[in-house]
Amino acid sequence: MSNEIHQEPSTELILTEVQADGVAIITLNNGKVNALSVELLNELQQAATALSLDASIRAVVITGNGRAFAAGADITQFAQGTPEGEFGLSSPERITQIGTAFLGALNAVAALPCPSIAAVSGVALGGGCELALACDFRLASGSARFGQPEILLGIIPGGGGTQRLSRLVGSSVAKELIFSGRMILADEALRIGLVNRIVEPDQVLAEATAWAQSLAAGPQHALRLAKSAIDQGLEGSLEDGLLLEQNLFVESFTTPDAAVGVQSFLSDGPGHANFA
Ligand code: COA
């Protein structure tokens, strides 16, 4: 299959590129550290929602332009000057708007039906770490740094950090990171299960794209059902999760993937199915 790239109509803050093999690459494009402003988050929500609705998209990579994945919420939006030129925190209404933008964008990323990979170079801090957590996988440069430093600003995470980080690495490790606000390097992130793979700094996007391409060549219907079973199952009790899995297991037999995969196994043995 040719792998031409076409640029989706994109805005300044989010660039979306779709390859012919069904891999989409979302690039955060906001200044020195890709601060996650309300404007960027709104555009990210739109981009992720559009990709969710596009049945030809089979895997998504999210990455950052420049030296950072993302340094978190745009801290300049947390404060506003008074008419007298004094410091003032933003109003509760403005902070609610920021929180709502995070919830909308990161939930839209988490709701991508196909596999998603955060390709992390530089820092993934605060909302940047939370965005990476909304993806299925995190692939990082050996020099990448992760953390939830909100506590150092006297606030707490507002983009899912207390929830998604705890579910991924366990509540005790999550509390240690969130209560201290300390940054960790990629090797520690790998050890605690926050990162899946570490690669050479100049290979981050290439390796993430190659991983996405191998997922895109897989059984897309089965992958979507498996993602759904895991993500939705974790939201409820074990009993409910097992029932959900049972229903989706049965549903998987109604997709073309099952016909291709089972027939291929019975005629050619394991590992020969072509799901393209
Ligand atoms: N929001 C807005 N601007 C930010 C930012 C953020 N989250 N993080 C960094 N910046 C800006 C800095 O103000 C600086 O701007 P300037 O060049 O106009 O002065 C620029 O990005 C570069 O940051 P700087 O601190 O000079 O670079 P550095 O390489 O020494 O450190 C970071 C980079 C990301 C480690 C550091 O800036 C940092 O810790 N940022 C805050 C992270 C954070 O607390 N995120 C959670 C937010 S809730």
Question: What features would you describe in this structure?
Answer:
This protein has a seven-stranded mixed beta sheet with strand order 1-2-3-4-5-7-10, with helices on both faces. It has a three-stranded mixed beta sheet with strand order 6-8-9. By secondary structure, the protein is α/β, with parallel strands linked by helices. The chain has helices at residues 38-53, 92-110, 127-133, 161-169, 171-180, 186-191, 204-216, 220-235, 238-252, 256-268, and strands at residues 5-7, 14-19, 23-28, 59-64, 116-120, 123-125, 137-141, 145-147, 184-185, 197-199. It has ten helices and ten strands. The protein has two domains: 5-216, Alpha-Beta Complex (2-enoyl-CoA Hydratase, Chain A, domain 1), CATH 3.90.226; 220-268, Orthogonal Bundle (Lyase 2-enoyl-coa Hydratase, Chain  A, domain 2), CATH 1.10.12. The model has no long low-confidence stretch (mean pLDDT 95). The radius of gyration is 20 Å and the shape is globular. The structure holds coenzyme A. The site of coenzyme A has 15 residues, from strand 6. Coenzyme A (COA) binds at residues 32-33, 35, 71-76, 123, 125-126, 149-150, 153.
